[in-house]
Amino acid sequence: MTTPPRPDSPCDRLGEMGVADTLRILPLLEEIRKRIPWTDSAWEALFEGARAAPDPTLYFLNLSKLCDSLPPEDLEQAVARPENLPVLGALLGGSESLPEQIARRRELFSALFL
User: Fewest CB within 10 A of the end CB: N or C in the chain?
Assistant: First the structure.
């Protein structure tokens, strides 16, 4: 049995993980990429977090908010730790209010993920 190839386009990848409104999320991904020039492995980690999220669309919306309010190196360091990915996915993709509170208080993010 062979494993099917991974979708190449971001739109296909978003659809694969359950993002219904890919046209809404694609511009957010582009903005995140402009602000934070992460490596390919860091981007893969972000997608891994989305796969763990109850709502991948909400995950990317909240991730965009975190990128606006936290230093890029904090986010990069957080996603570099594999044990953080399911927690980030659950937090960012499972609540509208908790990620906003964490984005406003950098020390909370640091205590949880760094």
Answer: N
